[in-house]
Amino acid sequence: MGRPPDPARRERTLARATDYVLAHGLAGLSLRPLAAALDTSPRMLLYDFGSKQELVAAVLAEARRRGAARLADNLPSEAACPEARLRGIWAWISAPERTPYVRLIFEVHADGLAHPENYPDQAEAITDWFTTLGAASRDVAADPDGTVTPTLVMAVLRGLLFDLTTTGDRHRADRALDRFCELLRH
Predict the structure, then answer these.
(1) Which are the contacts of 161, defined by CB distance < 8 A and separation ≥ 6?
(2) Could you tell me the pTM of the whole model?
């Protein structure tokens, strides 16, 4: 009879695996180097997570959870005007210390286009933002089902993040956000 699962060990491993993936990305992720970095074995990773696919899904969910919790702690209140919330989201997500999260987001999006079966929750990861982005854009535009404006805001933020991460041109990306806010006001 095998050793019973240890949820505390699994949580510690998940936290460290998430840190590892944020630092190194998912491209070429192999269990053996990951296990070595976490001071465990590939066998224990499979024991705790079932498969590499389930480990990756758990890591991505943990990265999203961390990001959402940190964003919630750093946003202006929901009573703030939509523009202040949008600017707060931009300031938080585009900060240099968020670069590992942003790179992981784009890595998953790109790989998900080629291998959607590897990311069954990818659409959910996008629509999870609708509540936050809806609060950042309420009363700004007619949006009967509450998803069109958050989709537009997310597309603009994603595009600006891609631009900023690729070019490093903070001034231009910030000016583009300023222009977007002006457009939303009208």
Answers:
(1) 93, 94, 102, 105, 106
(2) 0.81
